[in-house]
Design brief:
Elements lengths: L2 H21 L17 H21 L1 E3 L9 H19 L4 H5 L1 E6 L2 E7 H22 L23
Parallel strand pairs: 1-2
Antiparallel strand pairs: 2-3
Helix pairs in contact: 1-3, 1-5, 2-3, 2-5
């Protein structure tokens, strides 16, 4: 299996988990954060949406102009934007060549070069960062009154599980 095919398979496994965690946020908890230096639940969701849009731009234009935050109005809107970006990205991934996967690209924050690496390397880097931020968001769920979904196995909150 090629690196590109493995990436596509991993995304297929992880996308529903992203939607489950974001969908488990309770609307009243969107502004909650555990510490003043932390991102709020809303900011984490906006960041996750931004990562998906960054990867779309990478495939479309060969560069990322990093979206640190993507605004959304309601939780339902944020979940819809995340789902649409996942769908759009996966559609593009289906036609990516190995040549494109190995081509050098830039990851920019404003005018600052964060990284220059092969497209595939940047895709993995941002995907792993998204998983990291999804984990952060999952730790917010119980404090804001939500239930932790099954991510890599049952949680104490998922159906049929005790505490």
């Amino acid at each position: 299996m090629s690196n590109l095919a493995f990436f596509q398979q991993c995304r297929g496994n992880e996308n529903p988990k992203f939607r489950a965690v974001v969908g488990a946020v309770v609307p009243a908890g969107l502004e909650w954060k555990p510490d003043p230096k932390s991102r709020s639940a809303r900011q984490l969701i906006g960041h996750l949406i931004g990562h998906e849009q960054d990867l779309i731009e990478l495939l479309d234009a060969g560069v990322i102009h990093h979206r640190n935050q993507v605004p959304f109005t309601t939780l339902e809107d944020g979940l819809a934007q995340l789902g649409q970006a996942q769908t759009d990205l996966d559609a593009r991934l289906g036609s990516v060549s190995e040549e494109t996967w190995g081509k050098a690209a830039d990851f920019l924050a404003g005018e600052h070069l964060i990284a220059r690496a092969p497209v595939g390397g940047l895709m993995w880097m941002i995907f792993f960062d998204s998983i990291h931020h999804r984990g952060q968001l999952s730790t917010y769920l119980r404090p804001i009154g939500g239930k932790v979904p099954s991510i890599y196995g049952p949680s104490a909150d998922s159906a049929g599980q005790g505490s």
